[in-house]
Amino acid sequence: xxxxxxxxxxxxxxxxxxxxxxxxxxxxxxxxxxxxxxxxxxxxxxxxxxxxxxxxxxxxxxxxxxxxxxxxxxxxxxxxxxxxxxxxxxxxxxxxxxxxxxxxxxxxxxxxxxxxxxxxxxxxxxxxxxxxxxxxxxxxxxxxxxxxxxxxxxxxxxxxxxxxxxxxxxxxxxxxxxxxxxxxxxxxxxxxxxxxxxxxxxxxxxxxxxxxxxxxxxxxxxxxxxxxxxxxxxxxxxxxxxxx
Amino acid sequence: xxxxxxxxxxxxxxxxxxxxxxxxxxxxxxxxxxxxxxxxxxxxxxxxxxxxxxxxxxxxxxxxxxxxxxxxxxxxxxxxxxxxxxxxxxxxxxxxxxxxxxxxxxxxxxxxxxxxxxxxxxxxxxxxxxxxxxxxxxxxxxxxxxxxxxxxxxxxxxxxxxxxxxxxxxxxxxxxxxxxxxxxxxxxxxxxxxxxxxxxxxxxxxxxxxxxxxxxxxxxxxxxxxxxxxxxxxxxxxxxxxxxxxxxxxxxxxxxxxxx
Lengths: 244, 260
Known about the structure:
The structure holds 2 protein chains of 2 kinds.
Chain A: E1 2-10, E2 14-23, E3 28-32, H1 39-46, E4 54-59, E5 62-63, H2 69-76, E6 79-82, H3 94-104, H4 110-123, H5 139-151, E7 157-161, H6 169-186, E8 189-193, H7 197-200, E9 206-211, E10 214-220, H8 221-225, H9 230-237
Parallel strand pairs in A: 3-8, 3-9, 6-7, 7-8
Antiparallel strand pairs in A: 1-2, 1-4, 4-5, 9-10
Chain B: H1 8-35, H2 44-55, H3 59-84, H4 90-128, H5 131-137, H6 142-181, H7 185-195, H8 198-224, H9 229-258
């Protein structure tokens, strides 16, 4: 479903170094690693927002780095994404934000749109928030609206960048459980970047760890938890002493 | 960023490179927008929304600026008008200056401060909060959906506001001419209509369309190319206002030379 092969990307310095990764269909893949390891950049490469200098990113069998704008938009219609900053449109209400991807994908039946928006808001425990503006929401509420928007189209591939950043522990766990439930119901392939390792590992099927732009571990969640790789072991278990 | 070790040559080179980057960036943006005009690919509701908030909501500030500018011109010219007994030339002087130069320039600078700066701040905030990226992941072309309606709105509305401002500036001048110098309204308008050519009006309006393009491209370019989070938004707005004002004067010089 998602295949990343020997991908290199640099800005001032290399941020992705020869990354190769395969995420099977229907898998919830957790991407972990310390700050500035290249996780968000890799996620943006998967979304086609950044093009790698070398290597290939294939989604649904399409090498997205070589697609033209029209073909890339066709791929994007099957991808949902939650951004680290939520990226809610400030001038639109909560309902309009959530409905935005539906309208853009040709859904015109207002009753259907309203029903799907209400369903998403119930799923993220924000019923009745339809007419609120993003500026009047707390950080956690914005995050939940972002999740609602990312999942409203039931995309085949969903990318989450720090879905629980800034949330309290209870809300974080609720969000992770919700994302897992959504993924299982839709049969979607999910790549999730999170620093909340303890909760992330309760929902993932597979885990990859990045360090300095390279993927240093790729395996099942159980393998990650039992890994003897000193960096992976230290990071997964949150140990103070170690190579990091 | 300049360092202490850099000599004048290196600093000059850096400034030239920075200028070339920004001018080139705005030119590339203009070319990409032009491609979306044939056939037109823009969001209709966004266009109407921007026409309203950029144009209609600028009417009060442009109106006040224009009225007082017309009055100030008469106050400044009053001493000479009286000394030489040239009351009959007041309408021509006010009209020529307003229509060809002062009207377009002052209204463009006001428009840049109100609309251009706001445009940069909005786009820069959308960029740093990943809203532009979000549009792309929703398979929406940000240039067609977001930028093209804003650029067209700025060009069209600055043109319209210049016509509106010119009229108010002349009304202000006529009022002050009567109140301060005793030049009757009929004398003022006769002087204006006898000496002013359609080309004088057209020159000012051509300039206003050029200024609208400069403000739109500059404010959009700086908004989209922002980096550095919230502090970067402030820097982008500052750079956009400076670049717009500079661009307006450079364009005015060239247009005045060519359209003589």
